[in-house]
Amino acid sequence: SLYVSEYFSQSAQKLSFYSWYGNAKLFHFHVPEDTVLLRWLLQASRGKGPECTNMEVTVHFRYGAPPVINPLGTRFPANATVRPSYNISMTLSSAVQNNTFVNITTPAAGDWFIAAHLPEAAGRIEVKGFSTPCTYMFQPDMFVLRLIDMPVLEPGVAMTQTVVSPAKPLHVKVFVPKYTATMWFELRSCVASEQKACAVRVVLGSITLPQSFQRILTCTGNVKCSLGLDSPPWEKWLQIMVENLGTDNADVSVEMVASFTACKPGSTSSFLNFSSLNQSQTGPRPGNTGTAGSHALPAGEASHNASDQRSFCLQSQPVVREDLDVVSVRYRLLNGPSVPVYSIFPTLLFLGLNTGMDSGGSLVVNLLLNKTSLSLANATVLACVSAASPVLSPNATQNCSTAFFQGYPLSVSASSTEAMLIVLYPETSDWFLSLQLICPKGQGECNNAEAKVTVVAYLTPCFNDCGLYGQCSLLRRHGYLYAGCSCKAGWSGWSCTDDTKAQSVSAQNLATLLLTLSNLMFLPAIVVAVYHYCLVEASVYTYTMFFSTFYHACDQPGVAVLCIMDYDTLQYCDFLGSVVSIWVTILCMSRVKKILKYVLFLLGTLFIAMSLQLDRRGVWNMMGPCVFALVIMIAAWVYHGVKRRRCYPSSWKRWVFYLLPGITLAFIAISVYAFMETNENYYYTHSIWHVLVASSVAFLLPPREKHKKPWAWSQKLTCRYQICQNDREELYAVT
């Protein structure tokens, strides 16, 4: 045998602490056909700074679709199928890097997915650039060993092969055709080279994670051994591995044969249905006087179909797949939404999810029983949803299992007429829905019975669009798209249906009122600014108060939301007003000349607008203008002090009753904003930030100039032409 090794790698990704599925970093690999060994090299590393601590990285594996994970232990939506993912943990302690190998023999060919993440997020809101978080990186590499010219076992033809040694097992494959009901594998002979009794182990199927359904057959001596597989995967290669269990290195010759039992599908006049669909879309053709959709069969053919009905293994209903959007598919039945269900054979519906881009959503199947169509009141319609191959005998297989897949059961009856199934991240394959009528006293009771079941099946990115307290986000890893729910207002879970820590409506209203009404603390600052003739500053504070109020009214996660314009516009205006307010306040305190002050107002506002457009949440968008304005203020105060030969501001009352309280409030506000805010206490800590900042502005604004009088509107308006200002003019003599 000739083996070829291949290597696949993907770029490293920065890991995140887990709060929702978008924090997990997804890697997508494709395992080629005839792969006999798969090895993953998992590389996790962390930074070398003092902020880096011991950390545990969790890695999940799944075949066919992204892994369904639940690190937070939250609840899944009702009727959802959840099977725990296969995962391992990698610890980053004293070592900067951790390399771990994962080996899988005879892996299933197709898509494999790896998801990695850090432990649960602490929920603390960190200001970007204020602290340096530790960087944790993860990169998987995949090595495969592929067999060239793997022997093909033809159906019904015996094949003799030799197992060279226990270290080199024999690999063969057989193709399973469509409509296969049963596969029968038989090992006819097993002869050792030294005429000794041989012992071999036959493994049928490939390994899939998180669950593997390989069938193992152990044969000893010359006794024939066989194994039957009900409903093997249709139109796929089935890999068979034969291992020598002997202790010596003697060759073992084995003879094997595989046979199939076909399942004859019943006729559903699918060609006539497709013709009806075409005519219903394009209208009747000229010269065709018949009615579209009504087709009468000859009496002889109808009686022939009725006589052969019992020879059918299943009855397939034609289904049309309609692609609506990304990870959004609707399945439409050509014969109408209701399908007939019988007891003598199952009714089969084909749900194609084999494009490679369908596994990132949720498959939803709804069943509704028409009670008037059910002739037997105690009968039950049993349904099975399975991948790769259908369940052909739901009455005998109550757990809906096939040869290599565990299906999902559904049932409707006269007492419970509705049933729903949600398959989260369905694996890439051909999916089938099998329905059959079951009678409690045996199938003879309902041989002539029939039931009508309305079937609604569709693929959606997020079930129920993540509900009222969630947002469905479309995630991307290279060219692969998948969806996840980001929950709000304390709700959690896969579809934001877990209300264990959910906020009540009253709590949501309280949060909205605190975050919005706390901005009214800018009113004292506006009044003080107007009283001190700082009209530009008062305009900036009014702008900030307005947009901060309505931004937080729009930013709420629950039902108490009010958006007067686009969210992004409100956020930008709020951030801009906040930084410009700090900028103009410090410049106003510096007491520079008016013309210079207004020039700095304008230039600073333009640069702040530019920096916010580049990085809205960067810490230097606020710290930069603050530091530059403080340098200007200190320089101006030093200039005034040197010129007057005394401390500036010179009044001790100004320092004790205004500057020191204002500076104290500002420092407390910065500490709350930078170190105390979390996702849980945001609504009241950020409200405290609003109150402290607005109050500090009212204390820090400088008093009006001494030669200016307070606002006296009666005196100012008596001139009726202009408001006069008594400024001293300096006269210069030119000599």
Keywords:
4 domains; transmembrane; 735 residues; alpha+beta; Jelly Rolls; 7-stranded mixed sheet; elongated; single chain; EGF; membrane; 6-stranded mixed sheet
Question: What's this, in brief?
Answer:
The protein is of the alpha+beta class and 735 residues long. The longest helix has 25 residues, at 620-644.
CATH topology (level 3) name of the largest domain: Rhopdopsin 7-helix transmembrane proteins
Helix content: 10-25%
Beta-strand content = 25-35%
For the report, how would you describe the main beta sheet? 7 strands, mixed
In words, what does this structure look like?
With 735 residues, this protein is α+β, with helices and mostly antiparallel strands. It has 4 domains: 137 residues, Jelly Rolls, CATH 2.60.120.380; 106 residues, Jelly Rolls (Sandwich), CATH 2.60.120.380; 143 residues, GOLD domain (Jelly Rolls), CATH 2.60.120; 196 residues, Up-down Bundle (Rhopdopsin 7-helix transmembrane proteins). The protein contains 11 helices and 33 strands. The strands form 7 sheets. Strands 7, 22, 23, 24, 26, 29 and 31 form a 7-stranded mixed β-sheet that branches. Helix 3 runs parallel beside helix 10. It is elongated and about 115 Å long. 33% of the residues are buried. The C terminus is likely disordered.
